[in-house]
């Protein structure tokens, strides 16, 4: 162990120059920009005393907000899986005219300022919106409810699924499908056993990324969510509310829980993905 | 299963260029046929058409005398081994092999234990008895190749189609798998069509060789026949190294244009006129008779060592050099550097791109 660390620091016998410089830069970079803020986030809540922290944790509104955030993000990421798969499929296999344009547009939710997407979605699905008004007549109210949150999170999360699945799908040999057909598989068997099965790890990665993004999403959600406490209030919004009330303990308590749960979710996703991709390991 | 291809035409997608140009082929039950030819000759296209993986514009395709319409009719009756094996990477070897049985509707599917027994039987046939639980990524090229073969055989097809199955294997594995495949073909009573660009492989393994060039079948014959009577210079060239000599037939004699090569008599059936003689390195002989005039003997020889039991030489003509070889055991080796003449009387004669008989 000690030897491994030492040889890692020394450059592991690499012939390339600049190893130590690169290593130092990397460590400083990750330290300052990732580890330092994260540790501050972990330490800060306890600075006002354990009592304040415990009091902050006894907050039903906070748990309601956390539940809203996580359940909506989970649902949105889940719904994005089939949607993203279909979209990636059309991009890779479909020879549609304007495919390149569609390919560029997919990334738009990532590039757009989240507030812009939020306002757009709110006007579109709001009670007076283009889609909202006819849907409201049918009795479907999307905006200002959890449905609205899921809708917004699906919008921002879709590129993650598409972009993780696309390269894997592109590299999936066509002759695998032909082999399956020649072995007597019916179309749905080809899709489920030969196409989706090897895509599962990629789908799961996309799911994890969309989930992580969804939990932390703020701008695109608040305009469409309605933000009623205990009903459609998301955790990031509650942090802002607490900060405006100068309740720093409360704000950091939510942040801490958010951090831990996100971490847990990502670890779980990674574990499942690791289980699913045993077959990819080389001899 | 017998295969009959009648006047098959297939165009390149979206153009009038013909990938297959009026191809007819008759493969009786139990035959082992090799499709050979350079890249782009249409070998794989023909194989894929037989498997039903590609459509064709004109012609007919009969399997066991029956036109086979849909893919579903063919499935499981044809075993296809792809060039890159096309194994399912996310399934174990056993699951890969069992795939053709697993996808059967419940009413036709054998029981779990029957499938497992069949898989094990195939693994043993492939000499991979312990590979069932591993994933394809962990296997070597030769092992993957055999798994692909086992998968193709699992449903008990009557026709086995192999698309350059030995392409990615090293020479030693190639050689051993060749004879093993031939043996398997006979043991299982299969009809096999093999695509390869390696003529040695084709000669060794197949009992009929179909040479293709530019989407057409140039010659279809047993290996020995092909070697003895290649129909065109292309077939001659393709089957192995050869040198061509242009000349003229006059008074029953072929008189080469180049100096240093002896004229030789040709059969009466060859009419006078310009002609091309083609000879393989081992068919070219050296003439050092006492009656040789010094002025005629313009060929000098350079020794190039011994390979595969042959002594190789290079004969320097005026404008080019010709490779030839003699068996290594010959007494009194050719004295190189001597001025000699070449005797090419064993060469094949071609006129206008066709063999003269």
Automatic annotation (TrEMBL), chain A:
Residue span(s) of domain ABC transmembrane type-1: 66-269
InterPro entries: CysT_permease, MetI-like, MetI-like_sf, Sulph_transpt2
Keyword annotations from UniProtKB, A to Z: Membrane, Sulfate transport, Transmembrane, Transmembrane helix, Transport
Gene3D superfamilies noted in UniProt: MetI-like (1.10.3720.10)
Membrane protein topology class: Multi-pass membrane protein
Highest rank taxon of the organism: Bacteria
Chain segments annotated as transmembrane: 21-43, 63-92, 104-126, 138-162, 190-212, 248-272
SUPFAM superfamilies in UniProt: MetI-like (SSF161098)
Compartmental location: Cell membrane
GO terms under cellular component: plasma membrane
Subunit structure: The complex is composed of two ATP-binding proteins (CysA), two transmembrane proteins (CysT and CysW) and a solute-binding protein (CysP).
Functional note: Part of the ABC transporter complex CysAWTP (TC 3.A.1.6.1) involved in sulfate/thiosulfate import. Probably responsible for the translocation of the substrate across the membrane. Part of the ABC transporter complex (TC 3.A.1.6.1) involved in sulfate/thiosulfate import.
Name of this protein: Sulfate transport system permease protein CysT
UniProtKB/TrEMBL annotation, chain B:
Keyword Ribosomal protein: no
Signal peptide annotation: none
Protein keywords: ATP-binding, Nucleotide-binding, Transport
Gene Ontology MF terms: ATP binding; ATP hydrolysis activity
ATP-binding as UniProt keyword: yes
GO terms, biological process: quaternary ammonium group transport
Domain ABC transporter span(s) in chain numbering: 3-239
A Pfam family per the record: ABC_tran
InterPro entries in the cross-refs: AAA+_ATPase, ABC_SmlMolc_Importer, ABC_transporter-like_ATP-bd, ABC_transporter-like_CS, P-loop_NTPase
Record-given protein name: Sulfate/thiosulfate import ATP-binding protein CysA
Organism: Acetobacter orleanensis
